[in-house]
Amino acid sequence: MQIMADGPTLVLSGDFDVRSTSQVRNAVYDHLRSNDEGAITIDLTEVDTVDLTALKVLAVASRFALRDGQRMVLRGSCPAVRRMLHLTHLIRFFEIEREAISA
């Protein structure tokens, strides 16, 4: 798992699963603490695989952000991720960024 900060955005790439959750958790909480823009974006565009444990880590972080008056937005979540979010009812913890419609 590689994690890069780009302003208020954390760009994740690689496999986001039980093996990388602690690394992502630490990066997300550090980013939330250092962010003063009111929102952070988690970019999953380059994530190859994601499992339920990883999504739960993001859901808990999203609740933490809301409690502190911030919000967390997911970008680049593929249909499989969105389907998993709906099936597990974790979708209620996230704002999903709409993809731009290309011409």
From TrEMBL:
Domain STAS: 1-103
A Pfam family annotated for this UniProt entry: STAS_2
InterPro entries: MlaB-like_STAS, MlaB_ABC_Transporter, STAS_dom, STAS_dom_sf
Domain of life: Bacteria
SUPFAM superfamilies reported for this sequence: SpoIIaa-like
PROSITE patterns: STAS
The protein's name: STAS domain-containing protein
